[in-house]
Amino acid sequence: MKPKTSDISTIVIINKNQQQAKSLQIKTKHIERLRHYALGVFAVVAALSGLVFYLHSQNKEQEERNKQLQAQIAKLKIAVPAAVANPANTQQGSAQSYIQSIETKLKTINDYLKRRGLKGFAVKSTGGSGNNEAAKLPDSEAYSLYDDYLKHLTSTIAFTPMGYPRISSFTSFFGYRSDPFNSEHAEFHPGIDFQGRRGDEVKCTASGKVVFAGWAGGYGNCVRIQHINNLETLYGHLSKIEVKVGQKVTVGDDIGKVGSTGHSTGTHLHYEVRKDGKPINPVKFLTLNK
């Protein structure tokens, strides 16, 4: 079947070195397809350009978040007290001088815990601090006593809420603030809010036992963990809960995912520390240097 004249397009090729021009006949549908291919390539290039721009914007946003976090951490830090010099009568390098150094550090940790309203530890002198009877202990016995004490102290600290449930900047602090749902009213905010994206991991800040895991009204999906010294931590607005009531958790365990469930204006983590059932300022527990 002979194609119609309208189905064929003629392309004229002119060579400067030759006077005679050449013509090439191509079916019009092939030219149309070539146009579609060109549009397709243009669309792919545009999509890739948009993706590069989006990733660049996300990278800048993450850099800004990191700067905010570093600035907030800097505000929370204070200078660590200088180490107490050993008494002149303590022989340098002896077992008792090392033990005294350990005892000084234990007292410093004890002071940090007391500032948080926690029950302090009894730091008994085992030598080098005026306890002559204790100083007469053989080195092996002195080391053994401190080893047992440090094990107890380490275990206790593990069950005391410290640090960040997720490393990110704050979006709201503890205390009175403007109601995010009604700016004409003020409300008491019993915790602090951490910035985050849906699905980000939420980690428990201390070892303990899960006493609640489920829906809790304005808190949305919520997890509460009981710790020692009548302390409790709460993690609210979760998109997913990873633990069950009665489950024992270890500090740093993943207990849920960041979300925006319940009474929430956007994706974030609401974090509380409670003492005897009453909320206290969690900022005191974010670092030992408070």
From TrEMBL:
InterPro entries named among the record's database cross-references? Cell_wall_metabolism_enzyme, Dup_hybrid_motif, M23ase_b-sheet_dom
Q: Which Pfam families match?
A: Peptidase_M23
What are the alphabetically sorted keywords of the record? Answer: Membrane, Transmembrane, Transmembrane helix
Q: Does the keyword Membrane apply?
A: yes
The top of its lineage is:
Bacteria, Pseudomonadati, Bacteroidota, Sphingobacteriia, Sphingobacteriales
Name the residues that span the membrane: 37-56
Q: Give residue ranges for domain M23ase beta-sheet core.
A: 188-282
Specify the protein name: M23ase beta-sheet core domain-containing protein
A Gene Ontology molecular function term of the record: metalloendopeptidase activity
